Automatic annotation (TrEMBL), chain A:
Keywords: Cell projection, Cilium, Cytoplasm, Cytoskeleton. The keyword Acyltransferase does not apply. It comes from Pelagomonas calceolata. The keyword Chloroplast does not apply. One of its GO terms (cellular component) is radial spoke. Residues 300-319, 414-433 are annotated as: Disordered. It comes from the Eukaryota. One of its GO terms (biological process) is axoneme assembly. This is Radial spoke head protein 4 homolog A. It is found in: Cytoplasm, Cytoskeleton, Cilium axoneme. Pfam families: Radial_spoke.
From TrEMBL, chain B:
Keywords: Cell projection, Cilium, Cilium biogenesis/degradation, Cytoplasm, Cytoskeleton, Flagellum. Belongs to the flagellar radial spoke RSP9 family. This is Radial spoke head protein 9 homolog. One of its GO terms (cellular component) is axoneme. GO terms for biological process: axoneme assembly; cilium movement involved in cell motility; motile cilium assembly. It comes from Pelagomonas calceolata.
Amino acid sequence: MSFEEAKQYLRGKDEEGASLYEHLSRLLLKIIVEKPHNANAVFEQLSQDLREITQHAPSLLTELDTEPFDAEKISQLEWCRIACHLFTPTENEAAEISYPDLMTEANVFEWTGVNFGRTEVYQLYLAIKQKAKVEASSLRFWGKIFGRSSDYYVVQGVNPEPPPAEEVNIIEGMEGANKYAFWVCSKIGGEWTKLPNVLPDAIIVGRNINRFFTGDLNAPVPSYPPFPGGTEAHLLRSQIAQITAECSISPSGFYIEDDGVDEGIKAIKKVEEISEHRTIDELKELSSWVHHELLIDRNGRCNQPPMNEDEDSRPEQELQNQPILGSIAEDEVVDGPAWTISACPGTGDSPDSTVCVKSLKWPGAYAVAFGNKFTNIYCGFGCPSLRGVSYKIPATPGIQPEWALVDEEISALFEEEDRTTRPSPNENTEEEE
Amino acid sequence: MENPKLWGPGGLCLNIQEDAGLETALLDGALKNNLPKLEFWGKITGTTDSYLIAVGYSPEYPFPKKTFFWTTTSEAHELKVMKVLDDDYAAHAKTLMNTPFTGDPATPYEIVRPEGYEPPPPKTDENGEPIPPEEFREEHKLAYHVSVIDNEVSIIPKGAWICDATHQVIKNVTNCGLTHEAAGSLRNYLHFRYPENDRSKQALVKPGVVRHGDFLDNLEDDAPKGCWGVHYSPDAKYSIVRSFYWPGSYFCHEIKTGNYVSVYFGDGLPNEDILFML
């Protein structure tokens, strides 16, 4: 320790703001000024006396203290308040609502390398359970999205306020991407915010832009092409819609096509009871996994909108028929299949092993099959991986062609001669009067 | 995963298979390579398998030497020493920076030579026999990525490593961590590498006492602005630092303690689109 460092150490201040250095220098000054004859013998006493003068008795903070809290205390007190709130039971005991058994699922997620922390998972479980009771509907934990200054926890449930069927040309309702509603919060126990419904246009634009989330739902989304809605809440909803559509996968047999809907509309429903049990070897094949949500097409929709009155006005709406419950083996990214499968534990897999499927297109999206169950989870930045290919800003659309005449119109059209009309002199004179 | 609390906010972990395998491998690797300790560095995911990477520090002037080790998830119990690349291979690896990893260390990557390229005379062993040059494999690519990533995202809180009176950079055993206020500023997080900034380089060699924050580059100076993000956990007990140029780099510090973790869990590719994404 150098001299400077030693001095620095002695100068270190304690809670009261006093330092040993200060005390020693005062003490020596006192001795030199007062010159006691037995300075050596009474050194301790002198020191003690001096302390009594210079130091106040420690005072306990009382309720009356108006000392301003610092930022740390304020945020921690706030955290304690909302965390305590989680542990108080909610009254509304609605029948037949389900919430995830997160603690069991967390152990399964761990095989994929996703872990939210032991106590956090329990708090999350309480928070989702509470929300499910308030909403009186079943919820599932969708995942976590990282932002630049805070993260989003996302839960998924059936949309309580789907867009009405009359507006289907603008926005899809229950038959499309707004079948589910999503609630997000940035801290477990905090207020859940419902994300707005997603427009097909938002999904189309969302695919063309690539942005990190800030962590603030009201943050603007400056982008080209301009993002419909313009705030991060809309962008978040559009990315979640894409991930949900593309990464909700399960071993085949859990879901079947739903026939009980209107003609021309595709829908999928869950099988009440699954009969066949898949072996580990079967699960390790990509072909035995299927998409159990409707895929979103090029136009940002799951189903084709009903025919318009003036049919030729929107020809771009016509497109290929998308497979329903399609196998994931056909999905591709630029450098190969879009999914990889592994059985965990890898060494010595047994009938009880879990099978993890990982998306290469959406890093952070996983599906796990264990026993006779499966679960999906997302934990990532909410951006697709471009697999090493650079992002390109979408090109500006071509300049619209000048209005051109069609042959038959030319004969019907001719340039009119300029006509000049002079105001009658009488009128002017009247006004002047 | 010595302190699981530090990993929670990152949403990531090693699974039991990897964790258990590494527990053995880290100890074994340290003993066999005569290093005081090996630490888990991160995981680079490939298409079929993932690489687990560990690092060991040995005292060296002017900066501790880092030795890297690697293995794959399927063989997590045995670490291998990372290749050290020569200039030729490093230059080739640089051209493959944006190619995703396959997960198989033996995957060959062909080196396309310009026309008229004359290979240097092969090295000879002690008997004068020429040693054929080693094929460029994913193992080499891994070594390059790890050294680049480590250079940019291996970070420590200010005060965790100090430059002592003999000018050795050593771990500070009495480190008490950052205060709440200090933990919110990127200025107090330092790159744990031999400094690149002239000011830090001079601080490291100048005689006398070297202050904790002076001899390493801090994150505040990195470009572009916004490539790092720092925030507190909801309970304000931890601070979390993430890189957006290397998505997957994760740092968490327990405020007012010496506990921190700095790991990389990603695909090993730089995010060159960052300017569009902020």
